[in-house]
Amino acid sequence: MTYKYRLLTLSLIIISLVQLPLQLGSQESRTGGQAVRVARLTPEVRKAITDGLAYLAKPGVQNDDGSWGGGSNPVAETSLSIMAFLLKGYVPGRGRYGRVMDRGLAYLLNKSKQQRGFIGTPNNHAGMYEHGLAILALSEAWGQSKNPRIRNVLRRAVDITLRAQNKAGGWRYNPQPADADLSMTVMQLVALNSARESGIAVPKSTIERATKYVLSCQDEITGGFKYMPNTSEAGFARTAAGVMSLVMCGQSRHKATLRGLDFLKAYPEKKFDKGFPRFHYSHYYAIQAMYQSSEADFQAWYPKVAATILAQQSGDGSWSGGHGTAYGTSISILVLGVPYRFLPIYQR
Amino acid sequence: MLAQLTEDDWILRAEAMYYLAQHQAIEAIPELTRLVQNESLSSWERGRALIARVKIDSKESAKLLLSYVQHQDLELRLASAEGLEFITPPNFDLIEKLLQDENLKVKTRALSTLAFHSPQKALPHLQSFSKDLKKDQIPIFIRALVSAAQADHQQQIEKLLARCSPEESILVAEALDDLSRPQAIPVLLQLLDEFQVKDLRYAQILGILGRFDSQQLKGELQKLLEPPQDEGIRKASTILTQLVHLPELGKDLAKALKQAKNVETIRLGLIALGRHSMEPDQHKELFKNYLTHEQAVIRALAIRCLAHCESVNLFDQLKERMADSSVPVVQAALQALLSAPVSDAPRGEMVVYLEEALLSEHETTRNLAFKLLGAAGSKEDFKPAIKLLGDRLQSTDEDRRLTAAKALGSIAPDEEIEFVAKAQGYLANFRVIGTFLNDRENNGFQTVYPPEKEIDFEKKYPSKYVWSLDGRRHNNQEEIEREIGWSEVKVDQTNGKLLLALVVPPPGSLSVAYAVSDFNVVGDEEVFLSIDGDDAFKVWLNGEKILEKESTFKDRQDSIAEEKKLKLQLKPEWNRILVKSSNINHRWWVRLRLTNAEGKPIRVRSR
Fold it and tell me: Where are chain B's structural domains?
């Protein structure tokens, strides 16, 4: 599907959602060939997302320079926060949160300008994650923002990512083609796919090589995914990331994807506990993987993860997270809000 | 290294002196001075210490040298003469004193030092010395001539070299070792003529040449190639291969090589031109010409050179070499093609391309051809490959069969893998159910689960599993319930393995599964079953248990049980095999093969 066509589809979905009363029940509408099932968005979920966004937009939560978060990875928190607003259909420069989003985007664009195209925090293990998240946020925002700088910044950022792909097809901590790990490779793969969908040229061979790297991380015996091809055992978070990236690369019926999904499903129920290691990171990918997998898988998964997340929201609308409240809040919204599908990456 | 100067062994001390001087280790001066002055040491060693000290600190050493210029000991006077070469500005008075020395060795050494500092002052002495020069003075005298650097000395040097035996020639090279004057290069090149390339002394001279800058060597190498003569080409090629990166000489060498007839000359020239640093793409046409050279060694070398060219489609260029009369040439071509871009391979025509090699009577050639077919072949090659090689899947030679199966498996479309497995006699169609619970002690292997009591492919069963990825139950991990049923599975490995972990729900560790195959043997031959699997298996034929094998469990390693050629009592028409397989951790698979008494595969129909 071309980006233009996707936007058209999105518009139709948005229009239909505006026209249709958001009710509980099994009501469905069919627009642009997609079934929009609004029943999953319970009033509790909708309120939680609304409160969460309001929290993010509060003065003092967003920093003066337009960024979010007070930790060492403001680019990541800013990118996720922008995506949280996009998720519910808010657009930069317009409406209730237009100014807030514009300021966030300006922060990312300035980072790119200051760092010659690299957007992540330099000399930081999470720098390339941030760079990937920024590409993702900018790609999703591109077309909805009137800021013409986004396209140029995106091109430059994508170029840096393309040059950093190593021989095996993966990426790691630094924007150089040295070593690779699954987690970083999935981040870049998701970012590149999103950029590609938004109209930025990404060679098919780059995606194919990255896909090959992801596949090489699959554990032959369990079907789960490992951090690197020849290290450690498969884990839940890694598998969620691996499966999501394969689905995104059009490999949803690939044997490896199906085995990975089986691994996620067979994993004990503790995966839905609030204290589960890397809960947000895992479910950010897992929920998208389940959503893209099938309606039945999504229906079985979403209520459980949503219940855990809802129970953790604070009175001010925020969520705490391993990397601060901006991170916790934005990523919780991104998991809860998958059914909104206003983000192109959330479309089936 | 400083401490080594005080070792008891004089060899170790001499070694330390050499390296400390090379590295200008100023800290060594006090100990070197002590060694020079130590009269209990040999005069040779004291002389070496003196030279090392001068090399490190020539200014402060001048006074010290003064006391040894007229020393009664010959070795110390010789060392003084040598050491004066490093004193700047030169002390011509002392050099003159040494030129008057009664000993010819000392005088010659002093002359070399004088020539080094002032060729003009040395010229009259050089003429007088050459008249009654003794043979053992030739190396140092040549050093003096080289230092003086007069054009008319070249002829004199050549005459002197002609008087030298190989042993003396190497002394000449050693005398020139630390002389960085470019005039030494032609002398050293000439000295190479005395030795075979494999001779260590040849390498020693190359080592001395290697101390010169490549641009200093360039001019002399050009002279070697013009006019082109075998000896010059060989020498230049060797130096271009072993010593310097001078791609700009590639054209000169290629031009000279065209005139060469000697096989060794061509060989050395191709080796030099084929190096990556010589930009071999520039010479691809030359390499192509040698593909049809009468000597196989040259043809093989030309192939290797072409393999270094990025702009050459090797599949196009080497097509005719597939039918070469020389086995090493064919093998060189196959090796080169294995590294060539697969996109250059003739799509759908690889079997025709490789036909002779695939059918070769030489095992290495055949194996390389199969490997290449697997690497560069495509799905379109599968049918012709089966036509040509299908009978190899029936081979009783296991290596031969597996090599063919691997190659065919690499190019087979997914739906044909099963065919390749079946052609070898493997059972490839199963219905599988799992997982049932197992434990660290493999007790699940002896637990009777529903498929041992009834086989109903429509039925679902409750089962339990433990989320263990390493075959251990950590902290009394809970058992989790799930419903399981039979699923149809085809073997998707050309080696016939049914990878159970891939066809049952995860995690696969601490698990038991069952596989059923219904088959009908055509014909009335005796049928034998060979079976192997990881970790353990039981087999029932038509409801009767015929086999049970359990390997010794090895944690996180392959633990394979096997049974070869078990004779089966089959029913006419359809037979049913039920296999139970258990796993603790690591790989999990089972494989069943039906053969006749000779080991040839039995073809079966499955349902």
Answer: 213-312, 320-412, 423-606
Nearest to A221 among B478, B480, B501 (CB): B501
Q: Choose among A248, A159, A141, A152: nearest CA to A198.
A: A141
Residue among A199, A188, A204 at smallest CA distance from A152: A199
Q: Name the nearest CA neighbour of A177 among A135, A210, A226, A204.
A: A210
Query: Residue B316 corresponds to which amino acid?
Result: D
Beta carbon pairs, A and B, within 8 Å: 47
d(CA B569, CA B575) in angstroms, rounded, equals 10
Q: Tell me the shortest Cα–Cα distance from A289 to chain B, in angstroms.
A: 17
Q: What is the pLDDT of residues B40-49, one digit of tens each?
A: 999 999 999 9
Question: Cβ contacts of residue A118 below 8 Å, gap of 6+?
Answer: A112, A127, A131, A157, A160, A175
Q: Does the beta carbon of A283 lie under 8 angstroms from any beta carbon of chain B?
A: no
Which amino acid would we find at residue B451? P
Q: Are B214 and B244 in contact (CB under 8 A)?
A: yes
CA distances from A201 to A2, A157, A162, A196, B260 (A): 13, 12, 10, 6, 53
Give the pLDDT confidence of B265-291 residue by residue, as tens digits.
999 999 999 999 999 999 999 999 999
Task: Name residue, tokens 């890397």.
Answer: A278
What is residue A198's DSSP assignment?
T
For residue B253, which phi and psi values (nearest 5 degrees)? -65, -45
| Residue in B502, B504, B557, B558 to test binding to A, most A beta-carbons within 10 Å | B502
The position carrying tokens 């989320």 is: B467
- pLDDT reading at B100 higher than 80: yes
CB < 8 Å to B585, chain A = 221
Alpha helices in B492-581 (DSSP H): 500-503
Question: Which of A221, A255, A262 has its CB closest to that of B588?
Answer: A221
Q: Which domains does chain A have, with CATH numbers?
A: 1-39 (no CATH), 40-346 (1.50.10.20)
Measured between CA atoms, the residue of chain A closest to residue B466 is A268
The most confident of the ranges A23-32, B385-394, B456-465 is B456-465
CATH no., domain B423-606: 2.60.120
- If one counts every other C-beta atom within 10 angstroms of the C-beta of residue A25, the result is 7
CB interface of A with B, residues 60-119, below 8 Å? none
Q: pLDDT class for B58, splitting at 50, 70, 90?
A: confident
Question: Could you tell me which residue, A228 or B199, shows the higher pLDDT?
Answer: A228
Residue A343 pLDDT: 58
CA-CA distance, A73 to A64, in Å (whole number)?
Answer: 16
Q: How far apart are CA A323 and CA A332, in angstroms?
A: 12
What's at B605, amino acid-wise?
Answer: R
pLDDT for A40: 66
Nearest to B172 by CA among B130, B138, B145, B131: B138
Inter-chain CB proximity A268 and B467 less than 8 Å: yes
Beta bridge partners of B578: B516, B540
Chain B residues touching chain A at CB-CB below 8 Å: 465, 467, 469-470, 478, 480, 482, 499, 501-502, 505-509, 585-588
Residue type, A4: K
Q: How far is B586 from chain A (nearest CA, A)?
A: 7
Confidence of residue A346 (pLDDT cuts 50, 70, 90): low
Does A300 reach chain B within 8 Å, measured CB to CB? no
Tokens of B333: 């071509």
Report yes or no: B469 and A224 within 8 Å, Cβ to Cβ.
Answer: yes
pLDDT band at residue B134 under the 50/70/90 scheme:
confident
What is the predicted pLDDT for the residue at A138?
96
> Where in B440-534 does DSSP place strands (E)?
460-466, 479-485, 487-490, 498-499, 511-521, 527-534
pLDDT at A30: 36
ipTM for this model: 0.75
